[in-house]
Amino acid sequence: MTSAAWVGKMRENVQMIIQDLHHPERKKRAHLLLIASALAVLIVLWAFVHLLTLGQRSKTKADLDALVEQINTEMQTAENRRIIGDSDAANAILDKAAEQAKQVMDNQSGMYRQQAFNLLDRIRSKKEEINNIVRVSPRVVANLSTKTPNISASGLVGLGDGEFMAYDKEDAYHVFLNSVEEPHRIGDGTFIIDGTNLSRFQSQAFLMSGNGLVEWNNGQAMSMKTDDPRGWMSGNAVAGYLRFLYVLSPDNKQIYKYERLTNRYGIPVEYNVNGDLTGAIDMAIDGSVYVLKQDGTLLKLFRGETQPFVIRKAPTGLLKDATKLFKVTDRNFYILDPVHARVIMLSDGGPTGESSYVKQFVLEGEQVGTLQDLYVDPDEAHLYVMDDKRIYVVDLNTK
After folding, report:
1. Mean pLDDT across the stretch 125-153?
2. What is the pLDDT of residues 283-334, one digit of tens each?
């Protein structure tokens, strides 16, 4: 039958049904024919949609099969890159694999979702292996909140292995092993910005708001003067080295070097010659002066002049969330990243300024809050980290 004849036949049938609907004896039969026709149309439509969906699911399954296989291949490629020492390429490959695994998780069919979760877990584990990430559950050394329940500690000054001066905005707390003394008021209407140890003078110096400096010595807080008629220069970090005190002042693009005299400080010397201190947030001194900047840059200065400094084998964006810098004399750097609850370890770098990424410690535990500061003993046996209420320790020699 031609298409024209088929259409004509259908038109005749429709007209007959319409006529029957108005005929008292054939009305019931016409209704039944209408219902049967509607059901037939629905069945045809359902079969069409089912076949279309089945074909789409088959295509989706094939695509997902290929994607999962590709992810497994890329993970093996990343492992091969790690073996030959190309950690940058290995990390890039794993980042791509993680994005692909997320695509599998997000597909509307829901297929392979659990497998994608497992792949992401394997990718994370492989990245941690490549980047030498150590997850630790630190031990509590001291709980500062036993003395001040609502304390919000902000800084830690190491005096030796297991001995510290921890401080908040107004008070300092002497800590020895697990013993915390009663708080000592440092500021008199001013607030503590940063603190450092002056081991040669057996005192701790605290940079204060309002351009002042207070030393804690022999159980007393003493406001210290400078011979500079302008008073103390403003800053956001302070570091002691030998008989000198250094004040980091990014607003003035300068580091001020004060000599500690008998009962006061001399006139400051402008230490920085050509370093860009824009966004500088912390510093450490070990012969050279090292400055940590907000963008994750680590700047090296010697006699005020910038020196070459690079970090080899560092994962991308390693220091972008870093806030505190600590340097063990003639040994490694330790850098605090509170966003990821971790401490990053870098090698010294030596005279050439070629430092290397070593490892990172990720602190885990429900009680660990936002990390504030850190200290490492001279033998690098223990890493101490402080949140706003507690001081923790990680044993380095066993990691």
Report:
1. 91
2. 999 989 999 999 999 999 999 999 999 999 888 889 999 999 999 999 999 9
Contact 299, 310 (CB under 8 A): no
**Cα dihedral 265/269/272/274 (nearest 10):** 170
Q: Report pLDDT for 148.
A: 95
Q: What is the per-residue burial (b if ≥16 Cβ within 10 Å, else e) of 331-366?
A: ebbbbbbbeebbbbbbbbbeeebebebeebbebeee
What whole-number distance in Å separates Cα of residue 89 and Cα of residue 78? Answer: 7
178 near 195, Cβ under 8 Å?
A: no
pLDDT given for residue 54 in this prediction: 46
Kind and range of the H or E run holding 119: helix 113-130
CB–CB of 380/331 below 8 Å?
yes
Cβ-proximal residues to 374 (8 Å cutoff; 6+ apart), any chain: 156, 324, 326, 334, 336, 343, 383, 384, 385, 386
Instruction: Determine what percent of the chain falls in helix, strand and coil, rounding each to the nearest 5.
Output: 30, 35, 35
What single letter denotes the amino acid at residue 314? A
Token pair for 271 = 């230490």
Say which residue the tokens 């956001």 belong to: 236
Q: Terminus-to-terminus CA distance in the chain, angstroms?
A: 85
Position 368, amino acid:
V
Residues 6+ apart with CB under 8 A from 205: 195, 196, 197, 198, 213, 214, 215, 224, 238, 240, 245
What does pTM read for this prediction?
Answer: 0.79
